[in-house]
Specification:
heterodimer, A: 227 residues, alpha/beta, Rossmann fold, 6-stranded mixed sheet, 4-stranded antiparallel sheet, 7 helices, 10 strands, globular, B: 313 residues, mainly alpha, Alpha-Beta Plaits, 2 domains, 3-stranded antiparallel sheet, 74% helix, 5% strand, elongated
Chain lengths: 227, 313
């Protein structure tokens, strides 16, 4: 489902590589956690997968799409296949909660009837019922995080990338979010999660990929958090 | 087909909603657009008014051909026919000896001494043909025709454009041409300045919302779907500004015609400008709407471009 073959990314020539010959293979329906300190390259990795950045070298194939052969005009089509929960939420400030989630469906041409049917369901999964008409600025950090998750899962993507989705949440809400991720993983979505949260990693008992200084230093199944 | 319709409807709907939600930004942009579009409208009306003044001056210029008393009516008719056939002749008017005298008497009605002197002699005035040219710059065509020996022989005196009047006509023609050009250039320059100012304003408004564009890009929205609402929003700015500019000029004519006349130092025929505005109201409104919508839409299309680009390195 996700294949990275000796992928490197350098932002400037003089600087050390943000990612250094990283190879990673994620099977369909797998749940993979990427751990690492700040600056280890986690976010760069995710930005490469969403084609926000291009690798300096190496090959990336996601869902059968070879990024080397991907034309600019096809990038939106790729991004529609991937659900992303961004670390900084990236909610649209001029749209309310309902519209933010609905936007992900609108861009793929889903009918208004279906949107009215689907969006409330997803909002109730992330416990945001009753907040439909609130603007993002009226929400707490945790609530914004959950809107971002609702938006990422509403299209039922084959791949879900979540960048520190529990970073701004208290332990209870953090677990609610993880449960949502596990749930959609059970339905068949491949999940790639980056986190700092040791407790979550240890409880999940999933495959853990550790990044240090831009390199993969360990890749173990059913692993615990270890740096 | 239905999907395209839904997309189009969503783009328009989102544009309108965004316009309402970003009202403070919209008001700032509209204020700038109103001022610039009003200047363009004003320059349009001023240019039209100057052109009318020029037309009035040039319409008073004609060429008088004085005929010999001995010319037969068939010779005169022949000449009239030939003159009519010339391409640069707009109209001709024939005055018989009697008509010429009556006109002369009417023109000099206050001068009793002159009139009594004339009445004591037989009619000294020749029959006259008044020619109005289409284009003053090409008056030479008529002159060449009139100096042909066969035509010159029919005339008692040289045509009246000769001498000082010809120089005056040339000067006026030259001046009016320059004034016309100045009018047209002014309108074009103001339109360009207006377009640049509006472009800058819309660019600033879109710069403030660049994150929105980038987020939509990340979520997989297509170019048209992201850009569309911005174009609709800017077109709404254009429509509102165009209407406001028309209202402002209309109010100025209604409330301050006299003040305008005074402030233009008599150079501008405010009465004509007012009439021109009234009689061309719908056309001017259409011009303003087109300018506002086109400049708004093109500006937002260009301004969103840089935020829609994908990273190539």
């Amino acid at each position: 489902m996700i294949l990275l073959d000796r992928v490197s990314k350098k932002y400037t020539r003089s600087e050390d590589a943000a990612l250094d010959r990283v190879s990673l293979h994620v099977d369909p329906k797998e749940f993979v956690i990427v751990v690492g300190l700040s600056g280890a390259g986690k976010t760069t990795l995710l930005r490469l997968l969403t084609r926000e950045e291009r690798p300096t070298s190496g090959k990336i194939i996601v869902g059968g799409i070879d990024y080397d052969k991907l034309k600019d005009k096809d990038i939106p089509l790729l991004r529609r296949k991937i659900g992303v929960v961004f670390q900084d939420f990236k909610l649209l400030p001029n749209k309310n909660v309902f519209e933010n989630v609905a936007f992900a469906l609108e861009i793929v041409g889903v009918s208004n009837r279906e949107i009215k049917h689907t969006v409330p369901k997803v909002l109730s999964i992330v416990n945001l019922k009753g907040k439909e008409n609130n603007m993002p600025r009226e929400l707490s950090g945790g609530e914004r995080q959950r809107v971002a998750i609702a938006r990422a899962i509403v299209r039922q993507p084959r791949i879900l990338i979540a960048d520190e989705p529990t970073g701004n949440l208290d332990p209870k809400h953090a677990w609610d979010v993880i449960k949502v991720l596990e749930k959609i993983n059970r339905y068949g979505t491949t999940v790639l999660l980056t986190t700092h949260n040791q407790e979550i990693v240890n409880k999940l008992k999933r495959r853990v990929v550790t990044l240090q200084g831009g390199k993969v230093t360990s890749d173990r199944a059913n692993a615990n958090y270890k740096l | 087909m239905q999907r395209h319709f839904i997309t189009l409807w969503r783009i328009i709907h989102t544009g309108i909603v965004n316009f309402i939600r970003n009202l403070s930004l919209a008001i700032a942009a509209i204020a700038v657009m109103v001022v610039t579009l009003t200047i363009v409208l004003f320059s349009l009306i001023t240019s039209a008014t100057f052109n009318d003044t020029i037309a009035q001056i040039t319409s008073k210029i004609d060429v008088s051909v004085f005929l010999q008393d001995s010319d037969t009516s068939s010779q005169t008719n022949q000449l009239l026919k030939q003159l009519k056939a010339l391409p640069n002749v707009k109209s001709i008017q024939y005055l018989s000896k009697d008509q010429a005298l009556k006109q002369y008497e009417a023109q000099n009605a206050g001068n009793t001494q002159l009139l009594s002197a004339i009445s004591q002699t037989s009619n000294p005035l020749p029959a006259t043909i008044l020619i109005k040219p289409v284009n003053l710059n090409r008056i030479q065509d008529i002159k060449t025709f009139l100096t042909k020996p066969s035509v010159a022989g029919l005339q008692s005196d040289p045509p009246s454009y000769s001498g000082d009047r010809e120089t005056a006509i040339n000067k006026i023609t030259h001046a009016t041409d320059i004034l016309r050009e100045i009018g047209a250039i002014t309108v074009i320059v103001f339109t360009i300045i207006c377009a640049l100012i509006i472009f800058n304003t819309i660019q600033m408004a879109i710069f403030n919302r660049r994150d929105e564009i980038q987020i939509m890009r990340l979520l997989g929205a297509g170019t048209a779907y992201i850009r569309g609402p911005f174009v609709v929003e800017s077109a709404i700015y254009g429509i509102i500004s165009a209407v406001f500019s028309i209202v402002i000029i209309n109010s100025a004519f209604l409330a301050a015609s006299n003040a305008l006349q005074a402030s233009s130092l008599g150079l501008l025929d405010i009465g004509y400008a007012n009439n021109y505005f009234d009689s061309h109201f719908w056309r001017l409104l259409a011009i303003q709407l087109t300018l506002g919508i086109v400049i708004g839409a093109v500006s937002s299309t260009i301004a969103t471009r840089r935020y829609l680009k994908f990273k190539t390195k």
